[in-house]
């Protein structure tokens, strides 16, 4: 499997995504229509994990089906090697690139997840991960489960956008700037920016349970997908090693609080996360050896965040038990029951 090259003199993410949006008014030609679209994700990818979590929290499983690519990919495409025969069972394709090429022949940019595919035509609709989850939270409301939380509350949106922008540029993207830095100068700058932002988050979360106050929002989803990968991957593999997440009391408690909340930890696959980063990034880890550690059982230890008040789902309720077909199979993972408690 030929791997791509990731290290750059100074890493800059290519954000030239397919901008189409699925909306009630179908302004881009894509109407909200249950059963029409398929979310293609990978549990290994933090950007795709956002969409997986939001879909589950809102109860959109019946409205939007989901296909999962395997944790490793070559330089050209994510592949459906987890499925029988190596084909996505709905789209009947072996590589996500086939859906991109199905709409844009010889698609010239990176084949990324998450992607939403139009099932009738087999062509990709969008891979723009940020507006994708905003639209799931605002355009599909008629198809939410009973008790779905408001992940994008209108009174908080202006402040949320500021918080999410800083989290994205300094933390979500910041770990990649460290890991893919091709010079000492670029790494040093990236390292400083990352830990400045983590210190800001540590202070913010010391006095409130969630990023925006007393209930979870999309801002928490966006931060969680980086925090859950921090000690298993970013601390060592990406050299984000001033300290581990477990050494930041507020952030570590916050991350465990979310992990133990239905819809978060029950979508995390630590095995696939480690396989993806350590196997795919051969220019950082030439041997492809996947580390055994760290010990992940500590994700289920008491976090004490209840003392800050608030309720995860606000006036709503937790999602029900995860569908059997979508349960995380990895032996590495602490296993959560439908009540969010550890199963033994």
Structure commentary:
The protein is mainly α. It has a domain at 156-311: Glutathione S-transferase Yfyf (Class Pi), Chain A, domain 2 (Up-down Bundle), CATH 1.20.1050. The protein is 33% helix and 5% strand. It is built from nine helices and four strands; from the N terminus they run βαβαββααααααα. A four-stranded mixed beta sheet has the order 2-1-3-4. A hairpin with a 4-residue loop joins strand 3 and strand 4 (123-126). Helix 4 (157-172) packs parallel to helix 7 and helix 6 (184-206) packs across helix 8 (249-259). The protein is globular and about 50 Å long. Keywords: Transferase. The active site is at 45 (nucleophile), 176 (proton donor/acceptor).
CATH architecture tag of the domain at 156-311: Up-down Bundle
Distinct helical segment count = 9
Structural class by sheet pairing and helices: mainly alpha
Estimate percent helicity. Answer: 25-40%
Rg from alpha-carbon coordinates: 19 Å
What fraction of the residues are assigned to beta strands by DSSP? under 5%
Number of strands: 4
CATH-defined fold name of the domain at 156-311: Glutathione S-transferase Yfyf (Class Pi), Chain A, domain 2
Summarize the structure.
Keywords: Transferase. The protein is mainly α.
Question: Could you list some keywords that capture this structure?
Answer:
344 residues, Glutathione S-transferase Yfyf (Class Pi), Chain A, domain 2, 4-stranded mixed sheet, 4 strands, disordered C terminus
Strand and helix map with partners:
Layout: E1 37-41, H1 46-58, E2 65-68, H2 97-103, E3 115-118, E4 123-126, H3 129-138, H4 157-172, H5 174-179, H6 184-206, H7 218-234, H8 249-259, H9 270-280
Parallel strand pairs: 1-2
Antiparallel strand pairs: 1-3, 3-4
Helix pairs in contact: 1-3, 1-7, 4-6, 4-7, 6-8, 7-8
């Amino acid at each position: 499997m030929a791997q791509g090259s990731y290290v750059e003199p100074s890493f800059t993410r290519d954000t030239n995504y397919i901008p189409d949006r699925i909306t009630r008014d179908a302004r881009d030609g894509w109407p909200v229509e249950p059963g029409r679209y398929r979310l293609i994700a990978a549990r290994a990818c933090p950007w795709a994990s956002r969409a997986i979590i939001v879909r589950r929290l809102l109860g959109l499983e019946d409205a939007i089906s989901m296909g999962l690519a395997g944790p490793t990919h070559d330089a050209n495409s994510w592949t459906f090697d987890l499925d029988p025969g190596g084909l996505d069972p709905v789209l009947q394709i072996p590589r996500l690139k086939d859906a991109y090429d199905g709409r844009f022949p010889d698609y010239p940019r990176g084949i990324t997840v998450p992607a939403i595919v139009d099932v009738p035509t087999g062509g990709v609709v969008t891979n723009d991960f940020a507006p994708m989850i905003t639209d799931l939270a605002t355009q599909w409301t008629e198809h939410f489960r009973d008790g779905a939380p408001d992940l994008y509350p209108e009174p908080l949106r202006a402040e949320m956008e500021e918080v999410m922008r800083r989290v994205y540029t300094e933390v979500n993207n910041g770990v990649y700037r460290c890991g893919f830095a091709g010079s000492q100068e670029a790494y040093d700058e990236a390292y400083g920016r990352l830990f400045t932002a983590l210190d800001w988050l540590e202070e913010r979360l010391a006095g409130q349970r969630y990023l925006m106050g007393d209930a979870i929002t999309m801002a928490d989803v966006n931060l969680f997908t980086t925090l859950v990968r921090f000690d298993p991957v970013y601390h060592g593999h990406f050299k984000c090693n001033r300290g581990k997440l477990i050494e930041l009391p507020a952030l570590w408690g916050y991350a465990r609080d979310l992990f133990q909340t239905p819809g978060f930890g029950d979508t995390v696959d630590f095995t696939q996360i480690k396989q993806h980063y350590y196997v795919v990034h051969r220019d950082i880890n030439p041997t492809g050896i996947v580390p055994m550690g760290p010990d992940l059982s500590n994700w289920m230890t008491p976090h004490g965040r209840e003392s800050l008040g608030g309720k995860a789902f606000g006036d709503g309720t937790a999602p029900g038990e995860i569908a059997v077909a979508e349960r995380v199979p990895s032996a590495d993972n602490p296993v959560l029951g439908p009540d969010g408690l550890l199963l033994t």
